[in-house]
Amino acid sequence: MELVDKIIKGERAAIAKAITLVESSKDSDQQISRQMISELIKKPGKSIRVGFSGPPGVGKSTFIESFGSYLVSQNYKLGILAIDPSSQITGGSILGDKTRMVEISKNPNTFIRSTPSRGTLGGISMGTREASIILDAAGYDFIFIETVGVGQSEIVASNLVDIFTLIVGPGSGDELQGIKKGITEYADIFIVNKNDGELKMEASKTAADYKSALSYYKKLDELEKQVLLVSAIEQTGMEDVIKTINQIIDQNKLKGIFDERRADQLEYWIEEEVKHIIASDITKRLISKGNIPKYSKKVMKNEMSMYEAVETITNDTLKQ
Amino acid sequence: MNNKLNNGFNTWQKSFEKETKKNFSDSKSETDEGIDIKPVYTKDDLENFSFVESNSLPGQWPYTRGPKASMYTNRPWTIRQYAGFSTAEESNEFYKKNLESGQKGLSVAFDLPTHRGYDSDDDLVMGDVGKAGVAIDTVEDMKILFNNIPLDQMSVSMTMNGAVLPVLASFIVAGEEQGVDRSLLSGTIQNDILKEFMVRNTYIYPPEPSMKIVADIIEFTSKEMPKFNSISISGYHMQEAGADNVLELAYTLADGMEYVRAAISKGLDVDDFAPRLSFFFAIGTDFFMEIAKLRAARTLWAKIMKDFGAKNERSLILRTHCQTSGVSLTEKDPYNNIIRTSYEALSAILGGTQSLHTNSFDEAIALPTDESARIARNTQLILQNETGVTKTVDPLAGSYFVENLTEELSKKAWDIITEIEELGGMTKAVKAGIPKLKIEESATKKQAKVDSGSRVVVGVNKYKNPKEPLVDVRVIDNNRVRDDQIKKIQAIKESRDTKAVDKALTNLTNAAKDETNLLIPCIEAIKLRATVGEVSKALEQVYGRHFAKSLSVSGVYGKHFEGDKEFMKVESKIKEFENVNGRRPRVLVVKMGQDGHDRGAKIVATSFADMGFDVDMGPLFQSPKDVAKDAIENDVHAIGVSTLAAGHKTLVPELMKGLKEIDPKSKIIVFVGGIIPEQDYEFLYENNVSAIFGPGSNIIESAEKVIDLISDNLSKE
Ligand code: B12
Ligand SMILES: Nc1nc2c(ncn2[C@@H]2O[C@H](COP(=O)(O)OP(=O)(O)O)[C@@H](O)[C@H]2O)c(=O)[nH]1
């Protein structure tokens, strides 16, 4: 495939077109895209996929700009996939990611793509997974996957990356009570940002709080979770972050955790995709049969109960 | 209400309802500010005031009726036209001609590179030199600018905020080298950084160090320049960016409070500096509202300053400059603008402004020509000399309507001020981006009203002129200006004492690390012929450059058009496009060069998104090369360039080149919106621009054209 060759050569426009294909909802695009992906996975690169999440205001954007600049200054090639959930009722969206990555977006060693999530995180993340395969084949050393906000998107994002990073601010230690076992399973590294000026003391204290809380939740066979202190604004602590990322990746590879994780993720995505296909198939059938308006009228007229209606519709939809 | 009046009113109400066939209570009209205007006001409407004191006099507490007892009866307002373009030589000529023709004070418009602290030879400003103001690189330029204009006699206002330190320093040194001591300089420096972060966008450093610089200047002028206004706290730009009058009033006064606190924190006593704070408001087309706004501003400021413990009466008094609204002026049927400006000028005078700029009728086309500038100036000369408006102080005092409106505005603004104060003040609010977003929301609503026709703009959405006139425009050859400036910079760099300059710049950098008043080392560096760019960089080393993250409103435009046929037509075209192409039409909206006019770009972006486009929003100040990279990486269908500061003839061809450099087969189409004189259309089309959307473009119609052009382009593949 010509496109594949161009991607491997690292041609910017080809990479961009390829990402459009994997994100496309058009059947013919999806077919080309599948063929392309199956060719690309035969020529894997070496990229490490890193996920970033964190509550708004902790300086996540500033950190990504700062850490990204550091990486490109060290001659790494950096791809960034930003999933923007700011879609609206109308479906269109405003993608403002470029305004948050002014410096790195200029650098020829970066590729930055934002994707409107259109409300359905599942579908779009499938595209993100494949987009990272494209960037990998194109020779990017790191692929950042950035999700805005927390919650549902965090779980999805953690299934897209080799290493997942949670950024927090000084003083967020109080929220530790809120940190349930769950989150520690997703995040490999905790970055306490704003370790500068008057906030330094507070930041160190927060880091210490995180460390002790995390050791409390640590499972026996698990690696120590890393807590790092950085200042995105002063660009300090960046070497630690990259060192830690490399260390964790090396260790995980050694222990087989790296592959294990990618295998788990694959299972997750296969399951999600199958569910997605079944669900959309059934939804189509459900709508075409027109049962919902029909039976809801009956329920309105008290001719049957809602539960009876649900059961009847379900059976009718599932029957072959 | 006494009985007699009550009876009278009832009779009136009956007649009114009979004439209009409407209930009196349903006959209010709502303003943009959310104030209900009644069809009639009576004596009753003067009761229960908490701000306005109905019996006050001009020049007396709470100064609603004016800062002076005699106002224009003694001396008319100052005609102060804002101007500047090209080189210092050309602007100097222009100023001198204007002064001969009756203008009284100067007001300097700097070009965007100067505003943003770049020298004319910087690559980043290729398209911007001398285009939207005068280029000043060194004190030599400043001296040329005021050649044969005695600075001990002429009051000079300078709109400068970002690069305020080197520019004020240059002014002081230019004065000294003209033989005028700084203590004799009179005029105003804008020095209002908060509104830059909100709407004007010529900031350089982040908010905190920027606030420190503001305070340094207030401190320095209060000690050494007794006749100079240390700041011009500006609401003008907020209204021009889309704020309604309540937002303009509240945010401006809240900014003022923040500056007072900043100055106090330097150890100054309120009365040391407060008499030299000045203000700046816009005067739009809502005639009475604008009058009430100026009266309310004075009323509220007096109260605010009293609460700050001011004892000197002059500290309580708000003095202001006003400018008629540029955004109310249209590209279509441009002579209408003379009429609009006249009404606005009258409004400013009835509101009691101290000085005034009136816009030229070619406002929405280019910088004024000599001819259009003359008419703009004459608008004021006629008001002063022929209409008799100067003969009575505050002639609208006692008007039930105007007094009531003054009170209403005061109340509404006070609520917002209180809210901001509770949140920790304006610096905090600005950092969080809230005021900017509120202003953009208001701007988007206004656009929706015009696009839907619910607000009439004569010549734009109604009563269109079938024979649009082609007007002359001032053309500035930015390449020539740039070459001239570069030559001057080179000559200065060759003749100056480089070692001494370097040392002065290092001193400045070091001073930025502690609490030293930065104007002092700045003056030293400028005296030695350091450039504006060098001084700005010396500070940037410590403070860094500020990049604004852009938030966007959403759903505001779409909401106005629920059920609208035209709107739904575009929506369905987009849905169809998505079905055919597997994704929505994707458009990158960009600002290139130093042009900070983002109102249009933001409105277009949010409206397009509401209709169903995926819109990528670029940051401010992008280079054409960066835009090309963004566009290609995101595989957008089209780029929409919004350009208002006349950089288009340089920047658009560069963008085309940039796209081809990355992808020789690039199919991305480019369209351009903003201020484009008709004379430039052909040039842009020759450079493969697909469509041009000038001022007053209906956004829904524009969107339809864009989606059609994108579809056409794709079907060519
Ligand atoms: C508002 C305004 C300001 C505001 C800007 C607020 C903001 N945040 O945007 C303030 C007061 C801050 C300002 C400042 C300055 N301004 Co000014 N400003 C204007 C003004 C009056 C209106 C512009 C506007 O916002 N209109 C409303 C919006 C909605 O309209 P629009 O942008 O034209 O967009 C419409 C169309 O053009 C089109 N469109 C535009 N972009 C796009 C993009 C796409 C994709 C599409 C489809 C359509 C489209 O659709 C929109 C809807 O109809 C114009 C004159 C005028 N009447 O146009 C001068 C004007 C642009 N300013 C001018 C100047 C010189 C300045 C300054 C540089 C002055 C100085 N020397 O200091 C400063 C610096 C600002 C900066 N940082 O760049 C000059 C530029 C001269 C020139 N081009 O030759 C103008 C033309 C006035 C003049 N005649 O002198 N300004
Ligand atoms: N002191 C300090 N402030 C920071 C740092 N990083 C970000 N900030 C500030 O925190 C605020 C939020 O940053 P932003 O990157 O927009 O946060 P996001 O919402 O997580 O993307 C901004 O005002 C930043 O200037 C840092 O390292 N130190």
Structure characterization notes:
The complex is a heterodimer of chains A (320) and B (717). With 320 residues, chain A is of the alpha/beta class. Chain A folds into two domains: 43-255, Rossmann fold; 270-318, no CATH class. Chain A has helices at 2-9, 12-23, 27-40, 60-73, 102-106, 121-137, 152-158, 181-186, 200-217, 238-255, 257-289, 291-300, 306-318; strands spanning 48-53, 78-84, 93-95, 110-116, 142-147, 163-168, 189-192, 226-229. A seven-stranded parallel β-sheet of chain A has the order 4-2-5-1-6-7-8, sandwiched between helices. In chain A, helix 4 (60-73) packs across helix 10 (238-255). Chain B has 717 residues and is of the alpha/beta class. Chain B contains 28 helices and 16 strands. In chain B, 55% of the residues are buried. The mean pLDDT of chain B is 96. The chains are: A alpha/beta (320), B alpha/beta (717). At the A-B interface, helix 2, strand 3, helix 5 and strand 4 of A face helix 23, helix 24, strand 13 and helix 25 of B.
